[in-house]
Design a protein that fits this description.
Number of domains: 4
Distance between the termini: 57 Å
Radius of gyration: 34 Å
Number of strands: 17
Structural class: alpha+beta
CATH topology of the largest domain: Alpha-Beta Plaits
CATH architecture of the largest domain: 2-Layer Sandwich
CATH class of the largest domain: Alpha Beta
Oligomer: single chain
Largest sheet: 5 strands, mixed
Amino acid sequence: MSITVAQIMELEIMPLHATLIAGHDGINKEVTYVTVMETPNLYELITGGEFVLSTLYTFQKTPELLLPAILKLIKQGISAIGIKPRPYFPEIPQEVIELANEYKIPMFEIHQEARYREIIKSVYAEINNYQTNLLIEVERYYQELTSTVLMDGEFSQLLKGLGRRKNCSVFLIRNDYKVLGSYHGLSKIQGIDVKERLEYYIGKNGEVTHYVFHKGVHIFPCQMRGQTIGYLILYDKSVLNEKFMLMAKQLVTFVTLKLIDQLDAEQKVLTALFDDILFKRILKEEELRERLALYGLKKKNMYRVIVIGGNNKNNQNVNVQTARRYCNKICDIIQNALVIEKTNEVVIIVANQLGDRLNGPTWVNALGEEALKEDYQVVIGIGPASDSAIDIHWSYNLAKNTMRIGLAAKKNGVLYYGEYLSELVLLGSVGTREQEYLVSRVIEPIKERDNSKMLMKTLDAVIFEDALESAALTLEVHINTLRYRMNRIREITGFDFFTAKGRYVLTTAYLMYGYKKG
């Protein structure tokens, strides 16, 4: 804990013992310690924030070392320096004064009759008083926050205490950029402006996971289990001192706990509603539309389900931060969206007037283009539009199955069900005797004789690439090598990939094998 140089200057002893001669612009620097420099290598022990006192005794025979030594102290982060030049120097060298002005380091000339121990004693007493008063004030603020929470106060009531003390505007913004609470200080800045600044900063610099001060906006992330669920925003152009930094961190703790409770309650309700939809507990169309309308899904629109899940077969849990980004993008494109966060996936129910096309609505293509800009960390399955709320479960199942097909085909990113209709039909045969027979008759013999595992990789490549040349390029082999391997598959199975029937059987068997494996 520290005090500023300006506070030190207000001590009764300072005008009697010292005069500020340089670095006037740096008097708001914080002082944590007072130390005495009578060795040329003191800079090696400096940790930052020190008020350094010196008689320059060590430089009386080597004055040329004084300026470099002062510069090293400044570079190490001292907050102020006090020099008693006599009897070793007639006066403080002008180049030292200029250096202090250049770096805005307050420099005091200590009077000849002054005693260092008196200055040190007074400064440390002020630091101790400051620490005591700060702790008392911070404790009082903590009790105020506790009382507000126990009285079930709203977010804006929690923000008011800090905003009033700092005389600045304070906002709480959820990770979907919804403003949950605000306190307006003298700045009168609106929540929409802060939201746009936050969204712009995150879009340019990535997710905020620690405190950031950017262009007059102090951003404190509210985190839960490694993910950011909201942001405490202080709109104040000045740097926060220690007291307000402590208070802001206390406030972050309280609003985070309240935000977690709110999100948990919301998600429990949404999860229960979604379970009702999946298990057809709501049988009346109008009743379900009414319940969905409470969450902003307009009654006259069509419904569609989008599912965001992990892209790794061994760990299909969704990457939370990436899923959150896509949720925000989807909600920006389609205003009517209901987000349900489940254990291993995020389900989004959207409502708009756009029906289906074979290659999907235009916003599907836009989302896919956006996904190409970054490494895929998720799979996004998009189900069909339905004009019936009761059929939302159907859209969900097709979105999930589309993701399953994508994983089996090693595809990531945005997967629109309309592009996988034939595969979806095949997926309906999973678990049947026909699937078991086809896999055991076609795929298992290939695996048994595929000692180098090249045949299965080759079959995968020729199925999912548009041309043999592309498959050869993917495998990094000559096209004749690829043809040789496909002939081996023909010898093993009896099916020639280069005939219509053979291609159909091998492709179908390989897909069924992938679905079974997945």
